Amino acid sequence: MQRARFLHFAEANAEWDEARFAILGVPFDGTCSYRPGSKFGPNAIREASYNFEIYHQEHDFDLEELSIFDAGNLEECGSADATVDAVEEQVSQMLAAGKFPILLGGEHSITSGAVKAYRAMKRKVGVLQFDAHLDFRDEYLGQRNSHACASRRISDIVGVSNITLVGVRSICKDEMADAKRLKLKYFTADEVVERGIAAVVDDALAYLKPKDIYVTVDIDGVDPAYAPGVGTPEPFGLTDRDLKMLLTKAAPRMVGLDLVEVCPPFDKGNTAALAARLVREVLVLKGKQK
Ligand code: MN
Ligand code: MN
Predict the structure, then answer these.
(1) How far is CA 276 from CA 79, 145, 214, 260, in A?
(2) Which residues face 126 on adjacent strands?
(3) What gap in Å lies between CA 218 and CA 266, rounded to an integer?
(4) Are residues 245 and 235 in contact, defined by beta-carbon separation less than 8 angstroms?
(5) For a Cys staple, 224 with which of 75, 146, 233, 246, CB 3.0–4.6 Å?
(6) What is the pLDDT of residues 108-131, one digit of tens each?
(7) Residue 3: what pLDDT?
């Protein structure tokens, strides 16, 4: 009897050559500032992915129709800098082969590696970041590739006018000053509550000029009531449905996705379940789009 080398994401049964979607886990949590454990995120999300029907009723679509390759987890998770480099290398291979990359974190520091890969392939992308935190520190605890610096590193790559954030409700004083000085555009969780998620996401998408958009989801943008399994929980957040709406609206322009900061030790699997369900949502949304 053959034994699988690892538990792959549900329905990710395709070989590399035939796959349209490529999944990579990045079990890195080396710059974590509060509660460690997001390195267990990728496998927890994979495990949770089996608890859903293959058939997606809302879209009348069967996930079996998709060709999905799961590359397993990134091996070189040493320093943050080395991890970012390794992510860039892996995502570059996916892009060169015409795949749609889906990264499972791991902490938010991994995203800049993915965004660098688009630049390396000379593909212009805007970045839509879902997050409770502004992540705009230039460095944190001596690390420029800290998860607290995610949007700052991304803006270094694509330019500050080509990134925007939705769901923000935690900003330090220095970040606020830098965000104003450099004109970082972001939408707070309060604004979503006041105006509704659809209107805010429409504005965020209109703000991003490049047609192609890379979406980075820090699951802590969702309220801890819906997503308690995170490294840095921040109350007064958005709902699971808000995030689903954001992904639905972004899907037509989406060229890649990461879902980060799922920290399984801090809940009973519900956050990983939400993450897995959202990845499936994106798979179906992109799968229906020819
Ligand atoms: Mn966050
Ligand atoms: Mn973040």
Answers:
(1) 27, 26, 18, 11
(2) 213
(3) 16
(4) no
(5) 233
(6) 999 999 999 999 999 999 999 999
(7) 63
Distance 108 CA to ligand 2 centre (A): 5
pLDDT at 32: 79
Tokens 């509704």 correspond to 196
* CA separation, residue 100 to residues 23, 118, 179 (Å): 9, 12, 31
State the ligand closest to the CA atom of 148.
2
CATH number of 16-287: 3.40.800.10
147 in Cβ contact with 107 (< 8 Å): yes
How far is residue 205's CA from residue 149's CA, in Å, rounded to a whole number?
Answer: 22
Q: How far is the CA of 59 from the centre of ligand 2 (A)?
A: 30
Over the stretch 154-207, which tens digit does the pLDDT of each residue have?
999 999 999 999 999 999 999 999 999 999 999 999 999 999 999 999 999 999
Contact 259, 103 (CB under 8 A): yes
Q: Residue 130 in contact with residue 260, Cβ under 8 Å?
A: no
Dist. CA 153 → ligand 1 center (Å): 15
- pTM (global) more than 0.90: yes
What is residue 136's DSSP assignment?
-
d(CA 165, ligand 2 centre) in Å: 10
- The tokens 């409700």 sit on which residue? 169
